[in-house]
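User: Continuing from earlier, I have the next pair ready.

Assistant: Great, send them over.

User: Here they are, in order.

Assistant: Folding the first of the pair now:
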Amino acid sequence: MNILLRHFCILFLIIIFFVYGKNVFSAETQPSAENSSSGFTVKNDLSPELVREAIEGGITFLKVTQFKNGSWEEPDTQHVGGFTALCTLALLNAGVTVEDPCMQRALKYLRRLNPTKTEAASTYVTSLQTMVFCMAEPEVDENLIRRNVQWLTETQISKGAKEGAWSYPNGNGDPSNSQFALLALYEAERIGYAVPDIIWERATKYWGKFQNVDGSWAYLNLPPTADISAPGTGSMTCAGIVSLLIASEKSQPADARIASGKLIPCLRTQTDDSKRISHGMRWMRSHFSVTRNPGSDRWIYYYLYGMERLGRMTSQRYMGQHDWFREGTHYLLMKRHMMTQKNNVVVFWKGDVAPHETYEIISTAFALLFLSKGRLPLLLSKVEYTEDASDYDWNWHRHDTINLTAYVERQWKRNLTTQNLKLAAASVEDLLHSPVLYLGGVNSPLPKDAKMQREYAQKLRDYLDRGGFIIAEAVAPGGTFDAGFRRLLALMFPEEEISPYLMPPEHPIWTAEKKIPPEFLRPVYCLDHGCRTALVYIPMKGNQQASLSCTWELANELKRQNRHLHSSQILAEIEAGLNLGVNILAYATHRELKTKDTNFALQQELTPENIMVNRGKLAVANLRHGGGCDVAPTALRNLLIKSSEVLNIRSGILEKTINITSPEIFDYPVVFMQGRHAFRLTPAEKKQLQTYLLRGGTIFANAICASKEFDASFREMISEIMPENKMSFISPEDPLLSSRFGGYDLSTVSVRMPRKDFSRPSPSQKSAPRLEGIYFQDHYAVIYSSLDISCALEKHAGECMGYTAEDAAKIGINILLYTLQQ
């Protein structure tokens, strides 16, 4: 098909898009869903914008319902301060700063309260108040936190049938009070407050004792007898699992130890508590719902608040087959109520306990906690690669990535999360939700089946091709992990020129944020893919040095209440392992992490293998040459995927690398040319490219990482095939850089500078686009950027000079729209 006919066909698609294709939710529109027996059938109409609007509207609702004294309390409130603490906690998690006047009023009110000294001293209020103080300004409220921690430790029931529980005033212990007390002590302990071991030990016994035979927990505020039991509920089972998880982890040793001046890895054992947690998780998976509190007809929002905590603290994205955050978010968006007040959109959720506005405040606070905490940015995922569920070779250290994430949170001063995922069940799109994958073990990560080996390798290669990063590690000596992982690499990268190499001293990972002391340096192997390091592998260094996973598992030994137990050498080794982890994550992510709801906008990617060439596809060819045309292998594909979303082209994309001399070149109105090295075309290639341009085609090119070698070769090539036409800078006022063709106003863009300090986001400056072109036969025949676009499209451009990922995509979309309408 000639170029003019193809122009007409794609222009027709664009016209159809602008007439019929737009489908944007207004603020009042609610997404649709279909009920199922266990959860939701969620349609693909969620968006990050809808979630942010709901959170912002919920914040507005709580702000406008706050009383002048800073509280949310009604005069007859039973637990004075409880509603205020809950609302304050929700606002803090939703992003309201401590400096906000609303927050200052709330904190001032809470600081005046002493819920430990009233006649009806309240576990709920004390616990929620403690969580607020730990999150808001812990240095300011140090004495109040210490007071509350002491009271909570003193009021735990220390003997009798309910030993280990907390209760209402004059009560005999119940799981709801007990859950909140443990959550408060957990938050206090995280920031350095010492909690006696006996508290955790008692709590572990209590939660284990009152688990039902089927794995659930019930709300039973009665003296236990042999013949009294109650069916479990979702809210209490979430509470039971998380409470038992917290208490047992604090009362039992880690999965690694310190002995005789050494770190000893892989000492995980299967305890009764871990069996109880697994039993409870099975109950939750089989009874999962987001439309009701399983086993109860009340407290759905309290249950969802517990579900979020369960998913996050067990590092689970799925409950069975259900994406709990996606389905829960969909339900909350369906149930939200909206109104306009003083030009502000207010969002709230009605209570399911009583038709009283107080319960709207409670329900809205719980909904905000689910949405805001559930969408925390995902830092990394631990890969479960074993076929047998009872084989935990992938997870010898259950807390390694959890502890590393907590350490990074303190370093980066932002809340983050981590998760585990099953490689066999995960799609490439599932993997891409996480910027970093951690793959560790003692024995080979490869399954026995050869077909599954190839599937694992292809998934991980596709993940790296699309901008992902992998940390792989043998966590203990003596196993087969090294041989198995090297076999996996060979399957992932059959190209002979791609292989791991020993990371040199000048590699930025060594000093990205923390300098690693020389005595704790270890062999780290890198694998470069595209224009960056995409994988690091840490083998075992004999028996002399513990794995990174082992140091991460022991991270809690650095806390102030534990430091006196160990030598400075041991503490330094643990800290060095954590800091190397921070450096790797800083290099891999550039600290530029997305909230989990951004994944709602991801659409299934189309690959050349499942796309047939036909007229309706959005198609661009990548030109093959000797200057590194495949150094950024997914840049063009990512641009086409983004363009198809913007243009609402549902018939697919076609991205194909072709020889310059191929007759196929004339089927494409625009071709893509990228590279990082010097190159030279043959006379036949030059002639073909010249003919292509004379027939009305366009070359869209860029120098990967602003390569001077490619830049010089490209300019020489253009001067030879278009000797009578010179490239000149394209004016910021040119229609190409405007919204005239349905694209974006790009008169000003962000130009990214090479990054040297990995503790900060890539520096950038605003300027006009630095594009050059040749205007020939009433259109641009050549559009060229000497600054990087390709690495930005692959979203790993921290060391390149070029455009930001967002502006690189916009530039590409404008160029495609321009060429398709000429």
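And the other member of the pair:
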Amino acid sequence: MSIKYPIETPFTIPVDTLIQDFQTDPEKGLTTAEAEKRIQQFGQNIYEAQKQKSIWLIFLLQFKSPIVYLLVAASAVSLYFKDVIETAAILVVIIINAIIGFFMELQARSSMNALKEMDVIKTKIIRDGKEQEIPAENTTPGDIILLEAGDIVPGDARIIESNQLKCDESSLTGESMPAEKNPEELPSETGLGDQHNMVFKGTSVVNGNGKALITAIAKDTQLGTITSLVEKSEHKKTPLDEKINSLSKRLIWITLIMTAVFAATGALQGKEWLLIFESAIALAVAAFPEGLPIVTTIALSHGMLLMAKRNAVVKKLSAVETLGGTNIILTDKTGTLTENTIYVDTLSFPEEKVQVKIENNSLLFNDNQLEKNKENFEKMRFIGALCNNAPTEKSEQKDDKKPAAGDPIDIALIHLANISGASAQELHTQFERVGEVPFNSETKIMGTLHNLPDGKFVAAKGSVEHLLNNCSKIQYGTEIKELNEEIKKNILDESEKMSADGLRVIGFAYKEGTEVNPDAYLTDLIHVGMIGFLDPPRMDIKDAILRCRNAGIRIIMITGDHPMTALNIAKKTGVVDENEQNVIIGKDLPEANNISNEGREKILAASVFARTTPKQKLEIVETFQKAGNIVAMTGDGINDAPALKKADIGIAMGYRGTQVAKETAGIVLKDDSFTSIAEAVAHGREIFDNIKKFIIYLFSCNLSEICIVTILGFIAPLSTLLPLQILFLNMVTDVFPALALGVGKGDEKVMEKQPRKSTENILIKKDWIAISLYAFLISISVIIAVIYCDHIIETDHKIANNAAFITLAFSQLLHVFNMSSMESRLFLNDITRNKFVWLATLLCTGIMIVVYLIPYTRLVLGLEPLPTEAWIASIACSFIPVIIVQGYKIIAKAILKK
């Protein structure tokens, strides 16, 4: 008889009923035969790894671009006219561009397989009435598993027995505190983070032990649900990809229209069709900047390498720039904004509350701050160290990011004792433990009994309310007083205030003397105070967030943690102002397919989201994207993966981050630092500015070539530029200066500017006007040189053609100095300080000289030795554009100053 599987809400069903439904025995487990039968029926407890692109697919995708399509078409036409050299040159451009992009993406490709870690995990189960240890992949629904501290949970399971069992579920729920587990059934509306009678696949046991019934495996687990969301969430094209593609398509239409007009005009003038075709090809070559793909790829690759030096691994080239355009950063809390380590935050005594700061393993308060309660603090750290099951030799909270073993609260108490002058290990040795009352979900108290030289000592900690019920006295410094109802109420009120600030509050009490009953020692205790625990903000986080906010980037926290904890951290890190009280809780979020305009506006106005599920995180990302934002998502947990994939750019934490988060993200931070995000944003903005500069440079050069070919086609058709001459200029004298612009150092004040609009194209109206004016000036300089050679020197058409070639080459080369900003100085600016610009200028000049010195290259390009007067005229004319543009800038700045 087969079992009903899967069961949707096992946390709502009594344990006995579940055991019957799964036809298992809590003491004997399944039989081996039954387990094998179920594995055949339901499959193994493994996931299919996220599909990775093959190496060949990565290479082929480098050719998926309208720019490449147009270059291929140009090479095909050149081949048709048997221009082998031109065809080869264009194909070399295509291949070089593909190789650069391929190797950069291959280098950054992660070798991690997101979920395969589960395959090597061992788990303890009961089968055939015996304890066994088997691979996690062989567990099946109905198996009885045994859990203890240090174990990874192999599947979703319902608790049968629990002895102080606590699990770290932060990677799944975002909750930084370990979840206490008990077998009691829960109502159907209970959220994932509050399902205390369940343990979940991929989470870890940090304290205690227990027994549980496997209710779901593989894709049917909570982890499996998240994995399916990741698979369904498709990667968007990055904004840069979309804008480059849009620009490329516009270029294609401009090229086709200009070529058609030119051909039609030639036909009306009665020119030969062969000449019309050759001129049309020259015009098509002139219209398109063949060097654009290579320059863009190298500029992005340069940014990729710079970011790698700053601990950010970029997995896709265009992601470098996307981060620069980001205006919304949605960030997880635990492990991203916080340390993901529990520390003591607040000490609350009967007459005083002390804020604790721990830096470099030192307490940053002194004895004067404790005043009357120094004795209370001594007792509190004594209790915390003794009433504690964390291994003292391994529980130091060091600067490294590896979490220590044991309950995080116990680890924090051991740490507090050690850094305040009391060695926890020595205390455990000196005061022998002779009794223990374990923590459980009913009493919510843990107590230990110890031998003293002159009697016994009882240390107790737990829920403030439950502990107070076991106290009859309270300590005020050196005095012990009766604990009355009014004092109890005041303590409970203070505890609630601390909880409202997002702290996990634990009470502390003790008893000592010779008359302690070893069989019932948790009565008539003396209350000494409370401690508030917190996963604190990272030390560098506030400055990094402030830098992003000054740059016009809005930071929004999305977490699965408690609302008040989320708000507290948001205030401490500067995500929200101190007076902010608005937190949207996951259960209050409307469904994505049923959201009103009011609901959408509410989401867009919020800065803190708490108790959110992975699906809700994904939907929040979509909401901000639909509002026209460029969204970055940061996270480290399994629960962040769907949103990381959906965002325009996903950023995963490389050290603490789960494998699935790192696989899904576009950028991985090796140092887990939010500061690296701010640095990456700055680099992204610099890269975009550089891309814009070299596109303006290339387009103005190419537009000038269009104008020159068109004008000379009418006034001096025999002197017009040849297709191969234009291709040479586009691939040599244009490309190297453009490359220099692409790798230049950006504006130092880039993070003081507002982000560009997401709908804004790479080139806006004023840029097209500038391109047109630059092209006009370059064209005029070439036309003047040709007219001078034709009518003043009276040379033949070949000399005039060569003069046009030389003038165009050097005017375009000098044009790079026009790319400095209007605000910059004439001789000392971002262009003149760029060493690569000078190197490119010298290199291109050298190439031109070599081309003229070698007879074969002169022959290929249709060049011949020029008269001295033609050389002088060509060089002089090439300075016309830079002189006029720089003169205009000087005059414009002078007028603005007045």
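Worth noting for the second one:
Residues 110-119, 394-403 have pLDDT under 50 and may be disordered. The longest strand covers residues 156-168.
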